[in-house]
């Protein structure tokens, strides 16, 4: 597995990788057919459904197709969920790794880059644990609505949140405690740091070219989300 320490504007960094949209494996040691496995099964179905619907939503938005209010709301929800899935896939994928190559800008010392990686993973582990506790309460409340007729959408939402945060925290702890990190310097990532500081029109062209060299086709969209303030 390869990850990239992406400069996200001084002094911030973000870990980034692009992995295939593959099914999420159950946590190690999960009994079958225990309740945790059933929750992961539902979670996997939700993830697959969102990723299947994402391309249709993006196509309708890009082509300007007429959409009802309900369709627009659904498309926005699907795209939001797809972004959350993309953000957490790195940590989900880390759960099964023992050795990982981390590329970092070559204007940073390897020891400092390792410190940034560990700091990010430590913050991720704490954040996902915090939200796991909060959303677990939401899951318990949503279970009370199960006897009502119709699909319990609130329950599905909190299953997505709880399992997602649980798997993400597992990945962060794996990266901190068990992964052997192979740190490698990259002059291309240093170019990326300089490109981010450029004016938007020039920046987009440079970032797209750098992403092509790194073979990361979704990097430009990721950088747009993490470096451009929301209006």
Short description:
The chain has 7 helices and 4 strands.
Strand order of the largest sheet: 2-1-3-4
- Level of helix content? 55-70%
Q: Report the order of strands and helices.
A: EEHHEHHEHHH
How far is it from the N-terminal to the C-terminal residue, by CA?
35 Å
Outline the biggest β-sheet: 4 strands, mixed
The proportion of residues in beta strands is 5-15%
Number of strands: 4
pLDDT under 50 segments (min length 5)? none
Which descriptor suits the 3D outline?
A: globular
Task: Give me the number of helical elements.
Answer: 7
Structure explained in plain terms:
The protein is an alpha/beta fold and 231 residues long. It has one domain (2-9, 26-227). Helix content is 64%, strand content 10%. The protein contains seven helices and four strands; from the N terminus they run ββααβααβααα. The chain has a four-stranded mixed β-sheet with strand order 2-1-3-4. The mean pLDDT is 81.
Task: Kindly list the characteristics that best describe this protein.
231 residues
Q: Topology, please?
A:
Elements: E1 2-7, E2 13-16, H1 35-63, H2 69-94, E3 99-105, H3 110-143, H4 153-177, E4 180-186, H5 187-196, H6 200-214, H7 219-227
Parallel strand pairs: 1-3, 3-4
Antiparallel strand pairs: 1-2
Helix pairs in contact: 1-2, 1-4, 2-4, 3-4, 5-6
